From TrEMBL:
Coiled coil: none annotated. This is Probable periplasmic serine endoprotease DegP-like. It comes from the Bacteria. It comes from Bosea rubneri. Keywords: Hydrolase, Membrane, Periplasm, Protease, Serine protease, Stress response, Transmembrane, Transmembrane helix. Residues 91-110 are annotated as: Disordered. The keyword Protease applies. Its EC number is 3.4.21.107. Residues 297-365 form the PDZ domain. CDD domains: cpPDZ1_DegP-like (cd10839).
Amino acid sequence: MNSNENNTQNTFRQPAPARSILKRGALIAGAATLSIGLMAGLADNLLTSHGGANAQPIQLSGVQMQLPSFADVAEKVKPAVVSVRVNSRLASTGEDGENGPNALPPGHPLERFFRQFDEQQNPRSSRPAPERRAMSQGSGFFVSQDGYVVTNNHVVEKASQVELVTDEGKTLTAKVVGTDPRTDLALLKVNESGNYPFVQLAGAKPRIGEWVMAVGNPFGLGGTVTAGIVSAQGRDIGSGPYDDFLQIDAAVNRGNSGGPTFNLKGEVVGVNTAIFSPSGGNVGIAFAIPAATVNSVVESLKKDGTVARGFIGVQIQPVTAEVADAIGLKDAKGALVASAQVDGPAAKAGLKRGDTILAVNGEKVADARDLSRKIATFAPGSKTKLTVWRDGKEREFSFEIGRQPAA
């Protein structure tokens, strides 16, 4: 068995382009600290904004700053978090066999001669090479009492066997119900029936600056708790058209892929999926899939084993200030149609190159990425209406949403 026990991790080594370097792995990074001395300095509940002589005080009347304890939350949620162990089959070739460095091209006149020669010199060379296997580790968590578990797609990708290790050390076998590579989510189901501890997905996004706690399996250690804050929202790291990540600064490392990040109520606000790291380790910047995305994907995977997304058949580009000025738009917002797929839903409805999509069913489109996310939420076959800017005025197009082709 070829062991790959360094755990899986999406490591995002440079600001861009992220897509080529977000390959296999995991989680959040960076610990948040708060100076007690700074808190003492806020006795009058006043902070002064930067601005020299024109600085204005920021009133913090009624605000009480207090370091939270995560002990109660950790005790409550840890039983629902599992370590995920995956055995994968890898393609195998012999060193000097048909796919080795000494291979002859198919149809070569000496191919038969050298095959016979190799068999005479080494009778074992004609035998198929043994199957190679690799093992990787990640994290996951129960989302239902009957044994459904959420993790990352990249954790269980190409899995031949999946095992879950609970917080109590019990090992359970599981099957992959379905995966969604576009959001890097996967749904598992424990093979053994039982009543499992589970956690709830949060109904609302956390605010920037809120405390959060991540639990997972860094470096195969299992059951590790770490805390930090939500440091940003809506991050696009170049992993796909639906990027909308929470940025979190909790100290998380390899093996935490697929593990949950909780708010102080013990609700899952995100699923850890990638870190920004020049070295491959925690430097304080990590990304989690928001709970709202997790909820919709899990429901689809549980029902159908796949995720069906809406599709209108257009290639889109951002509306820059120069583009907006050229076409007479007041604001640089919306999504510019670069091309409309022949016989696609949008083309059939009359959309064409140069149109700018401003709204979907009356809801304004901020940019091209926002349009992709909005359309993806529609079920194939849904009726929709697009507001489009063409020839200096708004027009409306109604049509039926198509089904997005497989990745």
